[in-house]
């Protein structure tokens, strides 16, 4: 249930008296909160979405170590398909980042570095997210941890699904670029 907490919706509702689902893409994630024009609230949403992914894995690893990857997957899917919002949530990248932060600092660094590098080169947040989750999965293959790379493969497939509209816009050259 932690994954289903719609921090973007709660934060914009409290501080802006707006429903973030009626802005931009209609998602509840930090990128869409940024479209409200309030960078502080977008950052807060990002941090809370990362935290819910991190806490899920951290707490599960303390009390139910055998269920870490299952718990991580449920949290990730819960963010994307929150029960409270008729299963329409965010794209999962911030929650994914929190999950991999709890699983492996090395994977987190690889994700963050590749995400920033791809963003600087191409200026597409969606492309950065997609390619960085792929890079993390490919790197995890070298670690020879079946459960880890199986989890990362499943999340990569889900990331592709959540970004299907972005992929279409990238192919049509109509995806919005990030301005620096």
Distance between the termini: 36 Å
Strand content: under 5%
Number of strands: 0
**Mean pLDDT value:** 94
Task: Tell me what you see in this structure.
With 180 residues, this protein is mostly helical. The protein has one domain (2-171). It has helices at 7-15, 30-34, 39-63, 68-80, 93-103, 105-122, 125-141, 146-162, 164-171. Helix 4 (68-80) packs parallel to helix 8 (146-162) and helix 5 (93-103) runs antiparallel to helix 6. 42% of the residues are buried. The model has no long low-confidence stretch (mean pLDDT 94).
In short:
This protein has 180 residues and is an all-alpha fold.
Question: What descriptive keywords fit this protein?
Answer:
globular; 180 residues; 9 helices; mainly alpha
